[in-house]
Specification:
265 residues, alpha+beta, D-Maltodextrin-Binding Protein, domain 2, eight-stranded mixed β-sheet, five-stranded mixed β-sheet, 7 helices, 33% helix
Length: 265
């Protein structure tokens, strides 16, 4: 792929504008979350509210106004195929559990694929007033400041993010944590995989591993990490795989080998 992709810059600008608008709407719901009706999906830890649905509908509408031929995959309403070669992959609120429980660790995540590659990643964290933005060949930024990863950071002198959910067994997650600790590392989990991937791009975390994630949770962060100089484990986006889950691993340069060994990828 070359850095000359037709329509990339226009969509990059649009994704940032939409993320800011969607983030403001989500923040409004967050500030009145006691009025929200919260529902469960797969299990009691997997929750959704009208905020998730309204934010996704907003993003879908804004994209359709300008790029009606683009595909769109959202967590709440699924996949609509397009014909332009571009597909938007969106989690309207990643970290719904922190969101409904009054914690600031949630974000709006917008990725755009071009011919199967994540070429745009934008993550808005409204409670922190932060906008992470990256596009293929254009680098990554946080509120306009260029992000570049430090190769001297490793699992032993920095912190790794770990994700967990009911798609994998507690024993599997516990073994992952054990291996990381035995290798001299330490970890956090804040409830939003997308936001922790953004933290990898920003150098706040040296890596992030989750044994099972969906495309809408990880692809924006993947683009950000790659554009900041990091490495990501390939995520399958061909055919039906785009709507399925897969292992996710992202790492700063100094943590790649250790985290590959810990995740066994």
């Amino acid at each position: 792929m070359t850095s000359q992709i037709s329509g990339l810059d226009a969509r990059f600008a649009l994704a940032q504008a939409i993320a800011k608008e969607a983030g403001a709407v989500a923040l409004g719901y967050f500030n009145q979350r006691e009025t929200l009706v919260v529902e469960t999906k797969r299990d009691p830890q997997d929750v959704v509210s009208i905020a998730d649905r309204e934010v996704e509908n907003l993003i879908r509408a804004r994209v359709a106004e300008v790029h009606a031929g683009d595909g769109f995959l959202g967590e709440e309403f699924g996949l609509v195929a397009g014909h332009s070669g571009y597909t938007w992959v969106v989690d309207p609120i990643d970290g719904t559990s922190p969101f409904v429980n009054g914690m600031p660790n949630w974000c709006v995540s917008i990725a755009i694929l071009h011919d199967g590659e994540p070429v745009i990643g934008v993550i808005c964290a409204p409670c922190h007033d932060e906008l992470y933005a990256g596009a293929f060949g254009r680098g990554a930024t946080l509120n306009g400041k260029v992000l570049k990863l430090d190769p001297s950071r490793t699992i032993r002198n920095a912190v790794t993010g770990i994700g967990a959910n009911t798609y994998v067994t507690p024993a599997f997650v516990a073994k992952t944590v054990e291996k990381l600790l035995e290798a001299g590392g330490n970890f956090i989990r804040n409830g939003s995989g997308a936001l922790m991937l953004a933290y990898v791009a920003a150098g706040r975390l040296v890596g992030y591993y989750e044994p099972y994630m969906h495309a809408w949770d990880c692809l924006a962060g993947y683009c950000l990490v790659r554009e900041a100089g990091g490495w990501v484990h390939p995520f399958p986006v061909d055919d039906e795989h785009l709507t399925k889950g897969a292992p996710v691993l992202a790492a700063a340069p100094g943590a790649i080998d250790d985290l590959k060994a810990i995740a066994d990828v």
